[in-house]
Amino acid sequence: MAQQSDPRQNSMLAALPLDEYQRLAPLLEPVELKLGASLAESGETMRYVYFPTDAIVSLLCVMEDGDSTEIAVVGAEGVVGISLFMGGETTPSRAIVQSAGSAYRLSGPLVKAEFYRAGPLQDLLLRYTQALITQMAQTAVCNRHHSLDQQLCRWLLLSLDRLPTNELRMTQELIANMLGVRREGVTESAGKLQRAGLIAYHRGRITILDRPGLEARVCECYAIVKKEYDRLMTYRRPPRDRGIG
Amino acid sequence: MAQQSDPRQNSMLAALPLDEYQRLAPLLEPVELKLGASLAESGETMRYVYFPTDAIVSLLCVMEDGDSTEIAVVGAEGVVGISLFMGGETTPSRAIVQSAGSAYRLSGPLVKAEFYRAGPLQDLLLRYTQALITQMAQTAVCNRHHSLDQQLCRWLLLSLDRLPTNELRMTQELIANMLGVRREGVTESAGKLQRAGLIAYHRGRITILDRPGLEARVCECYAIVKKEYDRLMTYRRPPRDRGIG
DNA sequence: AACGCTATGTTCGTCAGCGCACAGTGAGTG
DNA sequence: CACTCACTGTGCGCTGACGAACATAGCGTT
């Protein structure tokens, strides 16, 4: 309760012009996101969109037999709950807190009202959605074509980018759930990284020792996604009447 | 040139209120989409959005080494080029005509202008985008968890849904490219379906003989995606000021 | 200090899909 | 009408991931 994070630690909120932000700020409700908490269940109507400030949320696609796969990860660069402003209200996927932390939330009706003002927030939300689409597409290819070793590196780097520290709390079991693979497979791949001196693993705590080393092992997917986020979230939209860009 | 398809064969255009459609109709430019033609290349700015009337377009994610994977397929139910109204202008994926046919296109500036009217078209485009996201997410899980046999069934059904006939022109080589697998693998899986009497394969022509048979073999992914399209594209948006839905 | 639970490490047989090489076979072309 | 090329079918050995079973080890609890 005591210390609340600054909403503008979230990149979306930070990117708003000051007047827009000031109008929005009183509507933002701080929430603590606990590890493993569910922000969205398949098919259930979402009540809020969440702007993480330092939490990380995984979007998972869960199947009938319980197998799941992470299709995207959201941190302080984005927002959870795009189906609210996209018009569908629900999605067939789950949103689970992968790393505990803080967020600010905005109720569905409010975010829709803001979205329909067609101002900077709409623009940001749509661009972010496109970046998310890229992440999902790249995840699909990566699942198909790359080794578990590479995918683990990708996953570690994606998480690392969204964390203030170089330590993440996450068991191999959970990582396996995210990646949609066996726990033993993660043990093996993580073992390789550990023996190579890139990470130190200890009972649910992973410390990244050599980030460049991870970047050297990761597949292209990581860079593609990251580059697309940078492009989409820093580019300033030209005025709407400017014609062909 | 002679016979042009009715633009309203495209579900998006058909779903527009008549007055909206009539305003839009003169702006729509008929185009023939030839097999293998590219509507979008990775990183290149798109000039048009395309509303297929009877063509099918594959969205592919291509990697450095040339390997590719289809991340979604678009037919008369949708539109190609969402990055134009989402704000990114480009995507890191390719759009390739998978089945020749007709489409209507709308230039980037025009579609943006229409989108920003915040009318029924915007609503449709956003809902469609969400459905597309679902398709991509489900493709990612399917790539991870399901056998090639099942994925081939899914692919055939997705194509079939977007075709007026029960015959599709597509070599096993091309299907393999779409699914991101080996050609031999497709030969083997298609052989099983053929021996089971579900399809007849003959030099680039696939005839579906037993659709229910395919549906019995396909994984859940097909139904999930289809259901979500139905839900999103038939649901009518409540008025914007109605509060919590 | 003993216990129990959770997390990690290891092994082994199995199998789907890969990469490669090559054999048929139809369809269109000169 | 023969040729060629594209498409399909098949047979290897190989490998990465799977599933199951089990061993070890840290950490908190009592």
UniProtKB/TrEMBL annotation, chains A, B:
<feature type="domain" description="HTH crp-type">
    <location>
        <begin position="146"/>
        <end position="212"/>
    </location>
</feature>
<dbReference type="InterPro" id="IPR018490">
    <property type="entry name" value="cNMP-bd_dom_sf"/>
</dbReference>
<dbReference type="InterPro" id="IPR036390">
    <property type="entry name" value="WH_DNA-bd_sf"/>
</dbReference>
<dbReference type="Pfam" id="PF13545">
    <property type="entry name" value="HTH_Crp_2"/>
</dbReference>
<dbReference type="Pfam" id="PF00027">
    <property type="entry name" value="cNMP_binding"/>
</dbReference>
<dbReference type="InterPro" id="IPR014710">
    <property type="entry name" value="RmlC-like_jellyroll"/>
</dbReference>
<feature type="domain" description="Cyclic nucleotide-binding">
    <location>
        <begin position="12"/>
        <end position="99"/>
    </location>
</feature>
<protein>
    <submittedName>
        <fullName>Crp/Fnr family transcriptional regulator</fullName>
    </submittedName>
</protein>
<dbReference type="GO" id="GO:0005829">
    <property type="term" value="C:cytosol"/>
</dbReference>
<dbReference type="GO" id="GO:0003677">
    <property type="term" value="F:DNA binding"/>
</dbReference>
<keyword id="KW-0238">DNA-binding</keyword>
<dbReference type="InterPro" id="IPR000595">
    <property type="entry name" value="cNMP-bd_dom"/>
</dbReference>
<keyword id="KW-0804">Transcription</keyword>
<keyword id="KW-0805">Transcription regulation</keyword>
<dbReference type="GO" id="GO:0003700">
    <property type="term" value="F:DNA-binding transcription factor activity"/>
</dbReference>
<dbReference type="InterPro" id="IPR012318">
    <property type="entry name" value="HTH_CRP"/>
</dbReference>
<dbReference type="InterPro" id="IPR036388">
    <property type="entry name" value="WH-like_DNA-bd_sf"/>
</dbReference>
<dbReference type="InterPro" id="IPR050397">
    <property type="entry name" value="Env_Response_Regulators"/>
</dbReference>
